[in-house]
Amino acid sequence: MRSVPTAGIVGIALSAIIALLPLILTSDLSGGNPRTKPATLIGGQTLSTNTGLPIFLTIPKIGVDAAITYVGLTPSGAMGVPEDPDDVVWYKFGPRPGEIGSSVIAGHSGWKDGTPAVFDKLPALKIGDKIYVANTKETMTFVVRELRMYDENADAANVFGSSDGKAHLNLVTCEGVWDTVSESYSDRFVVFTDRE
């Protein structure tokens, strides 16, 4: 995500949001705890609330140490984005990092006037690299499984959902060509990780 801090993640397919509706409908929209009761995901998985709320993301290989804030959906139905270039945000209507399912954290890569951003070096990660998320109860380790680029028309439902009964953390940032009409980049770069 670059240049315009209000640009949404428009490249994430609407089908991903539709798949999340059962979770969104059981969410607390007031902020803080995104669920006041367990929610059922597609495929009958039930989320636990034993995992604390995420507070800090660390990626030693690329020098990321960032506090995590929480976002929901924009009025257009896209995932919210960070306000500042050095911020990361967790999609609060999905699983918490460490819960069964796919948790999503987004950050900017690049910024106007060449200002460095938190996920500038995200493409430098390799399979097997480790990512750490501290929450209000513990610090969890995630291991990079896959790196993938999505264009704006790609079906990216797997970024927000999984059906293997395991805990995943997916990191999202923008890449590609800047579109002045949508005020967004054409592609999304996603790092898929699994809890160790």
Describe this structure in words.
This protein is mainly beta. It has a single domain, classed as Sortase, Chain: A, CATH 2.40.260.10. Helices cover 7% and strands 35% of the residues. It is built from 3 helices and 8 strands. A hairpin with a 4-residue loop joins strand 7 (167-179) and strand 8 (184-195). The longest helix has 6 residues, at 14-19. The two termini are 28 Å apart.
Radius of gyration: 15 Å
Tally of helical runs: 3
Q: Helix fraction?
A: under 10%
Strand-pairing-aware structural class = mainly beta
Judging from the principal axes of the Cα atoms, what is the shape?
globular
Percent of residues in β-strands: 35-45%
Query: What is the terminal-to-terminal distance?
Result: 28 Å
**CATH topology category name:** Sortase, Chain: A
β-strand number: 8
What letter string, H or E per element, gives the SSE order?
A: HHEEEEEEHEE
Question: Which architecture does the CATH hierarchy give at level 2?
Answer: Beta Barrel
Broad CATH class: Mainly Beta
